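Hi there,

I know you've been waiting on this one. I reran it after we fixed the sequence typo, so this is the corrected version. Both the input and the resulting structure follow.
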Amino acid sequence: MKDYIPFDWKNIENKSIWLQPCEESWYYAEKWRREGRKSILDLGCGLGRHSVLFAKYGFKVTAMDISNDALDFLKDYMKKQEVDIACRRGDMENMPFADNAFDCIFAMHSAGHADTAGMHKIMREIKRVLKPGGEVFMTLCSKETWTYAESGLPKVDENTVIKTDGPEQGVPHFFVDRADIESLFADFEIVKVRHIDDCFSEGRWKNQKHYFIEAVIRKEYTEPDYSDIIGRLVNCKIDRPLGGTHPRLPQIVYPVNYGYIEGIFAGDGAEQDVYLLGIDEPVEEYSGRVIAVYHRLNDNEDKWIVVPDGYEITEEEILKRISFQERFFDGKLYM
């Protein structure tokens, strides 16, 4: 869906009702922890009610939403709740994460905010960022609900209604039946589907039905290949030298030289970032050899590890030296 309009969080006066985790989040927190799963993407996180709950259960949580207002609220809220959450702004149709990034995806009343073409893109992205055997819990609106079947609201295609007022004015809502679910989840093993009618809530009767879907992805794992990168001699421009501070976060002091390589672009569209290790003084430029790549999972860029030619360093020492920044991300070192 082009020109996506986010939920109007800024003008929601009573935010407390949006901070109460839904019943399902407690169930999946227990289930996924029992199954040994570690990382969760809260897709369309809103103010972060489920992100905070999962973080308190000990998961590595990444919260993604298209609304800057929602994420700004969550960044403050998570500090008050004393939990760490990676907050990322992103479009569900083109998520800013690596392949095979997450054990679980939780999407409560969020993934269906697209038209039919957009929903199929979202499902492709969910398949891409889930690890093999990863599980998704998702709700989708039912075609039996009043909004789709009787409201007369404008439809942009056979599955999609556009709200015309309230905080969701202009936001698309995707509606499904059994055939739609089977098509969308063709590459998954569907574990459970419930068809729930929230027939009475907020003091009134209404016809508001959703499908609650639990499914496991079927795919093979492929390790990223860095054979054409590791071993390269590269020239590094150091714009954040050892002892310097982060341009936006002055509390972060760089214990290593950190810079980029001109003319080589990373997944975020910027020039490739590098950690220069083995040099114990600040420098502006240095030529060295790439000995490893830190592959960020809940991000869309890797970090190259560069050292003086012939310098030896262990994997443990590399991870220790870059942890000042990489501790905020989930990733893996390839040497």
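Quick highlight: The longest strand covers residues 130-142.

Best,
R. S.
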